[in-house]
Write a structure and sequence with these properties.
It is a single chain. Helix content is about 50%, strand content about 5%. By secondary structure, the chain is mainly alpha-helical. The chain has one domain. A two-stranded antiparallel sheet has the order 1-2. It is elongated, with a radius of gyration of 21 Å. The two termini are about 35 Å apart. The relative contact order is 0.10.
Length: about 100
């Protein structure tokens, strides 16, 4: 089991299997992995930016615990992230209430 994404695993396998192949094939395998990692870095940067924005919202609005508020009673945006490798239970929000 690995914590690498499917594309990283596939690219790494291509690099490993190209050991005894011509340099052009090795180069293609390495380039594919580098291109994938460049995209991953951009995604990670965006994700970290969203987290920082959510932290600022929490700090600016003095949100310290979850409580019930009227829907859209605060002009804020939050970021929710799920690890789909773990069991996740998502609550159903009443349309008149929002929980912060």
């Amino acid at each position: 089991m690995t914590d690498l994404c499917w594309q990283c695993q596939r690219n790494n396998e291509s690099v490993y299997r190209s050991a005894n192949l011509p340099d052009s094939i090795k180069s293609e395998a390495v380039q594919a992995q580098e291109e994938h990692l460049a995209v991953v870095r951009k995604e990670r940067s965006l994700y970290n930016s969203m987290i920082d924005d959510a932290k600022r919202v929490v700090a600016n609005h003095s949100i310290s615990d979850l409580s019930v508020h009227l829907l859209n009673s605060r002009d804020v945006a939050m970021h929710y992230s799920f690890d789909f490798a773990q069991p996740t239970q998502v609550t159903h929000f009443n349309q008149d209430l929002c929980i912060f």
